[in-house]
Amino acid sequence: MTKDNAGAAGFSMNSFRLDGKLALVTGATYGIGMAIAEALGEAGARIAFNARHADKVAEAQEHYRAAGLDARGYVCDVTDEEAVSELIGRIESDFGTTPDVLVNNAGVIQRTPMLQTSAADFRRVVDTDLNAPFIVSKACIPGMIEKGHGKIINVCSMMSELGRETIAGYAAAKGGLKMLTKNICSEFGEANIQCNGIGPGYIATPQTAPLREHQTDGSRHPFDAFIVSKTPAARWGTPEDLKGPAVFLASDASNFVNGHILYVDGGILAYIGKQPQ
Ligand code: NAP
Ligand code: GCO
After folding, report:
1. What stretches of the chain show up as alpha helix (H) in DSSP?
2. Who contacts 80 (Cβ-Cβ below 8 Å, separation ≥6)?
3. Cβ neighbours of residue 199 under 8 Å, at least 6 residues apart?
4. What's the pLDDT at 216?
5. How many structural domains compose the chain?
6. In this structure, is residue 214 part of a structural domain?
7. CATH number (domain holding residue 56)
């Protein structure tokens, strides 16, 4: 049995370590992507990360290095197939290898009623949240096949399962990302590549800040109170809550987990919601 195919017989607590691995985390200049990159780095991986804004990439690189992590940032828009191909080439040149782990985290959202959402707006969200994970996965899979192993983690969403007003493009993209995850699982499982999703619940990041802003009278945003009532844990998640699940799915400990969406939502998807008092 090769190391890459170690099954339950090969398990030890070191199975959760990522020493010797290179992880690419897209959109990791803040938010969930930064938390996941931190976790994979703390588990021993070298980190490559990207985003669109050079100043934020530089700040994040300093953040990771100050935390003692071996990280290198790149300016790259994941919707640009040519730029992504160049990114993987630069990573291979800089690190001497291609990613063992890919986290498709970069994402955007637009909250407008569907009838006020242009086709261009819809396409822009789908381009980043669905087409880009396809593009980046396609750029990383050949290197994983050559190595005989690989881990792809797609950052899905509760909206991979549920809809909500004003986010038609986002929900459509995240639903598609769930199925892309299952398809990559199906097509590359034999190459010892595991592709799974992480489905965060409502997490306190810049992306959800508009849903948590206090009202002019000092009261909580109605959506804030709504989410707390819908969550058994009675709180918003934090990026920290995603660290353990990400390390698990990136490590040998999950070598027989494939095509699975691991929801990290405090139980929202299981709960009808607290009844009004
Ligand atoms: P965020 O705070 O808005 O951060 C998004 C990150 O992605 C930033 O680093 C951003 O940097 C980067 N990015 C955006 N578009 C990009 C592009 N085209 N190319 C490269 N980088 C890009 O979002 P978040 O809340 O951390 O969410 C991260 C992921 O988790 C997203 O896929 C989101 O859909 C998903 N998610 C979030 C929640 C939540 O409640 N927060 C829940 C479920 C799922 P630049 O803008 O500088 O490029
Ligand atoms: C929204 C939120 C959600 C979260 C997340 C939930 O407007 O409903 O932004 O979509 O980002 O995807 O899992």
Report:
1. 31-42, 54-66, 81-95, 119-126, 132-147, 168-188, 222-230, 243-250
2. none
3. 156, 157, 158, 160, 161, 178, 261, 262, 263, 264, 265
4. 87
5. 1
6. no
7. 3.40.50.720
Catalytic, out of 64, 170, 202, 263: 170
In the annotation, is 64 catalytic? no
**Ligand 2 centroid to 160 CA: how many Å?**
10
Looking at ligand 2, which residue's alpha carbon is closest to its atom 4?
202
Helix (H, G, I), strand (E, B) or coil at 246: helix
- As beta bridge partners, residue 262 has 198
Assign 43 to helix, strand or coil.
Answer: coil
The reported pLDDT for the residue numbered 275 is: 87
Per-residue model confidence (pLDDT) at position 200: 98
Residue 11 lies in a domain: no
pLDDT at 136: 99
* CA distances (Å), origin 158, targets 104, 172, 173, 198: 16, 12, 12, 10
Name residues of the chain where pLDDT drops below 50: 1, 3, 6
Q: Is 231 in the pocket of ligand 1 (CB under 6 A)?
A: no
Q: Is 114 exposed, middle or buried (0-12, 13-18, 19+ CB in 10 A)?
A: exposed
Q: Look at residue 9 and tell me if it is in a domain.
A: no
Query: What is the distance in A from the centroid of ligand 2 to the CA of 207?
Result: 8
Q: Which two tokens stand for residue 79?
A: 């919707």
The two structure tokens encoding residue 243? 């660290």
Range of the domain at 126: 16-201+237-264
